[in-house]
Write a structure and sequence with these properties.
mainly beta, Immunoglobulin-like, secreted, Jelly Rolls, single chain, (Mediterranean fruit fly) hypothetical protein, 4 helices, 4-stranded mixed sheet, NDNF
Length: 408
């Protein structure tokens, strides 16, 4: 049996894709209008044809469920690239494939409308690779049947539809800077006649990285987690006069790097693209000193996670800089910041630590959390940026805090 559909002079031959015992044919993304169905039988007999303007799986109960999926991106502006990642579908994740729609105009919440716009814009372009009217299948099949590619070059002027199969990551090339990109991820259920449903949306400002300006003697925090793994800080050496107390430290620059979550990060300090300071594998508060600096010079500090694994778990980094050699609002840290367990007896524990070399009066504070043994909480890790405000005191696992002051 040969079955042919025609719509607005578009002829679609389904006989090649039909199986011998197949009784149902799904035409995805059928647009509104009149369809003519021609059936050619190879032998005499009777046949009954019914057409339904709805997907046979449109009543799938899970379609009405809330589906929280997050899209993550990393902008590689210099390479004109963008990495897009998303979580797997929670609905039959073993059977769902994915299609990513990228454009610079608006969100695409309907897959069929996006396909129609894609072929409408592709028709006016040369060598677009779009199928002609003789393609032996539907236009949607042309998109679905394309093999996934690790990297795909996009055209920001039109709608780009990229099907990734079961993969949840896609590298985009040819991304133009200083534009807003709309990302939509759709799921394609391979075991429900390619039922397509919207999963997640994201809006990305694809701009060049602008360094965060540092203030003298002030600690600044910046997120370097996830895929946005590079952060840049800028500091211009001021031209003001130095207080006589700190005159002995004149003509030097001192950085304090604080990786909040204890993740390993690398730092490069540059002056006019020349590396002036470099440190790798920083996992604890670290000082870097630069000598022979002059007023008006602008230094750039660039942070990156030390490797791909650290990029996925890095949180925040704190950075402070001073031109006097001494941070007026931050205490001096000892070379060894390890806390030692001296003794433990019943419910009593004794700890010890190295004192600060600072000549000023220093306050030491000890915070105690009562952590469950089985279900370890999010606060059960080293956090060098932990403060002593309401966020800590009002934490449900907070038990006590004790502070003592010591002076040299």
């Amino acid at each position: 049996m040969e079955k042919i559909w025609t719509y607005r002079h578009l002829r679609l031959n389904l006989s090649r894709s039909l199986k011998s015992d197949q009784r149902t044919v799904v035409l995805p993304c059928a647009l509104r209008g009149q369809y003519d169905i021609f059936v050619q039988a190879r032998q005499r007999g009777s046949i009954k044809i019914e057409a339904h303007a709805a997907h046979p799986q449109s009543s799938w109960p899970l379609l009405n469920r809330t589906h929280h999926i997050r899209i993550r991106t990393q902008n590689l502006v210099r390479k004109r690239q963008m990495i897009v990642k998303w979580d797997k579908s929670k609905f039959d994740f073993h059977a769902v494939h994915y299609c990513l729609i990228v454009n610079t105009h608006q969100r695409q919440l309907n897959f069929c409308n996006a396909v129609d716009d894609y072929f409408a814009s592709a028709a006016g372009r040369v060598n677009v690779g779009a199928p002609g009217s003789c393609y032996p299948g539907s236009l949607v099949d042309y998109i679905w049947l394309k093999p996934p590619e690790r990297a795909k070059k996009i055209d920001p002027r039109i709608i780009n539809i990229i099907c990734t199969g079961a993969h949840t990551q896609q590298l985009l090339r040819g991304v133009l800077p200083n534009r807003t990109y709309y990302l939509d991820v759709f799921g394609v259920h391979t075991r429900r006649q390619n039922l397509t449903f919207h999963i997640a949306s994201a809006q990305v400002e694809y701009n060049r990285t602008h360094p965060l300006s540092l203030s003298d003697d002030m600690l600044s925090m910046k997120k370097i987690s996830g895929l946005n793994g590079i952060q840049v800080f800028s500091f211009k050496v001021p031209g003001r006069k130095i207080n006589s107390i700190y005159r002995q430290f004149h003509r030097q620059l001192r950085y304090l790097i604080v990786p909040c979550g204890g993740s390993e990060i690398d730092i490069k300090i540059l002056l006019k693209r020349q590396v002036m300071g470099n440190a790798t594998g920083i996992y604890r508060p670290t000082y870097i000193r630069l000598s022979e600096v002059h007023k008006g010079q602008r230094y750039i500090a660039r942070f990156t996670p030390s490797n791909e694994d650290e990029m996925l778990r890095a949180h925040k980094v704190g950075l402070a800089v001073t031109t006097t050699g001494i941070f007026q609002h931050l205490p001096e840290l000892p070379d060894n910041i390890t806390v030692f367990e001296v003794s433990t007896r019943c419910s009593l524990a004794t700890i010890a630590w190295y004192s600060s070399p600072d000549s000023r009066t220093i306050r030491y504070c000890i915070i105690v959390f009562n952590l469950p043994q089985r279900n370890r909480s999010s606060i059960d890790y080293t956090n060098y940026c932990l403060d002593f405000g309401k966020r800590v005191v009002q934490h449900p696992l907070f038990q006590s805090i004790k502070c003592i002051e010591r002076s040299k």
